[in-house]
Amino acid sequence: MATKNNEKLQELTIEEKLQSLYELQQIDSKINKIVTLRGELPLEVQDLEDEIAGLGTRIENLKTELEELKRVSVQRNMDIKKAEDSIRKYTEQMQDVRNNRQFDALSKEVEFQNLEIELQKKKIGDAQRVTKEKEALMEEAVRRYDDKNIDLDAKKAELHDIIEETHKEEENLRAESHKLSAAIDDRLLLAYRRIRDNARNGLGVVTVDRDACGGCFNKIPPQRQLDIRSRKKIIVCEYCGRILIDKYICDYDGSQAQADLEASLESQKKKTRRTKREE
């Protein structure tokens, strides 16, 4: 079956291949317009989802840090309580000392425990300050998290509406694009797609209009234009690499060509009459 299809494709003339390519380009351009209609919404949705995930992780980390600060503060308060108990114990013992050496030793223990209490209180104060800072960061992160979720819901709804509006049309166009692609030989189709991928505007096949390439707008030499109009071989723009065709490639009944010719003749007549009046 594949061999028969290849033989059938080989039977097509260059003109028929160019016609199929141009029609494929027209359909692919319509698909691009639909995708463009969605704009940056898919990327914006993805960015919001990533940002929300990051904020969620930050909130969880802040919760863990606040819990650890709370645990450490509880432990430091317990250490203060132990130090106060030790001070009471040493103070009671000082009343029963028998010599100065014992008194001095107990006095140093009391002094040490007082210093320990001051140190722990300082550390608790530092922890309270850090806790307030982290609570402020947590409040801000939660606020941003909620705001971003609201933005995400709105963006998703907007994107869903656009997709719903264009889904059927896009589906039909893609089916038509697939059908046309099957009528073009693989090498030519691959070249067309490669050119499209490299082209900023997605145009792989362009017409010659006003003696210039319809993709990069560089002038096409007259002899090369004649070759393009002959439709005997596939010609690419020497500047941008796009496939060049004449604009009447799909004018099967010649009506558009005739209309353009009549318009050109009428324009020439007006120009002649104007020249005569000026003389």
CATH architecture of the largest domain: Orthogonal Bundle
Average pLDDT, rounded to a whole number, is 85
Which regions have little confidence, pLDDT < 50, spanning 5+ residues?
Answer: none
Largest sheet: 4 strands, mixed
Explained architecture:
The chain has 279 residues and is mostly helical. The chain has two domains: 39-180, Helix Hairpins; 185-247, no CATH class. It is 78% helix and 5% strand. The protein is built from seven helices and four strands. The protein has helices spanning 2-11, 14-38, 41-94, 100-182, 186-198, 222-230, 255-278, and strands spanning 205-209, 212-213, 235-236, 243-246. A four-stranded mixed beta sheet has the order 2-1-4-3. Strand 3 (235-236) and strand 4 form a beta hairpin. Helix 2 (14-38) runs antiparallel to helix 4. The chain is rod-shaped and about 135 Å long. The model has no long low-confidence stretch (mean pLDDT 85).
